[in-house]
Amino acid sequence: GRFTWRLPVLGRTLEVVQSMTTMKPSVVRDRMLHNYLELRHALDVLEGLRTIPTRFRSGGVKHLLAGSRRMNAALNAQIDIEQQELRPALLGADAWGESRAEKLAQHHVQRRDALREPVLVGMGAARSENFVAWLGGVIVDARRALLREESDCMSAELLRDDGVGIGVSSE
Questions:
Q1: Digit-coded pLDDT (tens) for 125-155
Q2: Any residues with CB less than 8 A from the CB of 168 and at least 6 apart, and which?
Q3: Do 70 and 46 meet the contact criterion of CB atoms below 8 Å apart?
Q4: Contacts of 130 (CB under 8 A, 6+ apart)
């Protein structure tokens, strides 16, 4: 069976389909890449809001704080999806699947730690321009994390339905 839930993120909806059955690697890859595209768009929107000078920003920094919290929730939801769907696909991809899945899990721990900090910092600095500058760094880090995982775990050569890895290695 499967069920769908939707997570609103800065005017867009990240659709998550939970599946109780194993999906083909190409389907997992397509779903992850689609989610990454939506997350990148949401990061672009948040970056656009961040760059509006405070004096012109409706509601001041508190709208940015609310947006950063929604983005935080979306990124954490994506980590959960990757653990449920991408990890099993990596395990079955090739002889290095276990190593890749472990690296993914370690990366997820680091990302969750990084995502905890924004909420704490944002709560204490909601009226500060420091928060606006700091949020820019968070956005850059999130984009880098998406690129790294896409590169390391979601190539068409790695997540193939035929189970034969072409030109892939454990690094």
A1: 545 667 788 888 889 999 999 999 999 999 9
A2: 93, 94, 96, 155, 157, 158
A3: no
A4: none
Which pTM does this prediction carry?
Answer: 0.77
Q: Rounded to whole angstroms, how far apart are CA atoms 132 and 92?
A: 42
Residues composing the chain? 171
Which helix (H) or strand (E) segment holds residue 110: the answer is: helix 97-124
Tell me how far apart the alpha carbons of residues 171 and 168 are, in angstroms, rounded to a whole number: 8
Return the closest-CA partner of residue 88 out of 74, 75, 98, 76: 98
Residue 171, classed as helix, strand or coil, is coil
CA 66 to chain CA centroid, Å, is: 18
CA atoms 69, 31, 80, 86: torsion sign: negative
> What is the sign of the dihedral through the CA atoms of 117, 34, 136 and 105?
positive
* N- to C-terminal Cα separation, the chain: 35
Whether the Cβ atoms of residue 26 and residue 84 lie closer than 8 Å to each other:
no
How far out from the chain centre does Cα 55 lie?
A: 31
Alpha carbons 160 and 36: distance in angstroms, whole number: 19
Query: Does residue 17 sit in helix, strand or coil?
Result: strand
- Residue 141 CA from chain centroid, whole number: 11
